[in-house]
Amino acid sequence: MLASGDNHRKHYPMHIKVPMKPEAIALTWPLMEPNTTSPRKQGRAKICFDVAFDPRKDNNVVVLEGAFRMDSIPYETIRLPASTHCTLTEMSIFLDMEEFNRWPINVMRKDGIRCLDVLEAIHKMLQRPLTDGDVRTFGLAAAQRGMRRVDLLGGRRFFRGLSQSGENWTLHMGSSWY
Length: 178
Known about the structure:
The chain is an alpha+beta fold. It has helices at residues 39-42, 75-78, 115-127, 132-137; strands spanning 46-49, 61-65, 69-72, 90-95, 105-108, 158-165, 168-174. It is built from four helices and seven strands, in the order αβββαββααββ.
C-alpha cells in the first residue's frame, strides 16, 4: 500500500510512437489463398488461372467447383472488388518465390481495385521481356534473351491466391490449379 502523498505512477512521454499492426484486410473469394486445412473451406470454389494467359479473354479464368466442374468465371464475379470490407486503391504484390521479388506487382485504381485488375497486373508484369539485368541475375545464356518473365516460372504458373504480408501481399503460385 502506498503512503499518502507518494506518487509512484510512471510518466511516459507523449511523443513516443508505437508502430501499429497493419490492418487485416479480407479479400474477395477469387483472390483468396485456398485453405486446405479447414474441412469447411475445402469445398469452396476456387479459380484456375494460368498467368501466361490474358485474364480478360474468355475461358482463361475458370471457376472450379468440386473435383471436376469448371465454368468460365462470370463477368460480374471477376469484376468484384478485391476486398470484401474496404475499398483498396493500391496493392503491392510480391511473388512467393524470393528470387522473383525484384519484380513487384503494383496495382492501382482510384475507383477501387477489382479482382480483374489484380489478375491483369500479374499477367502484364510476367509478360515483360527479360532485361539484361534479369539475364545476368538468373545466369541465362545470350540465346535465351527472347524469354519473358513468365518463362522463368517453369511449371509454377498457376495462381493460387494472395495472402497479406504486413502492408504488402504475397502472390502464391503453384504447378497445378488444385
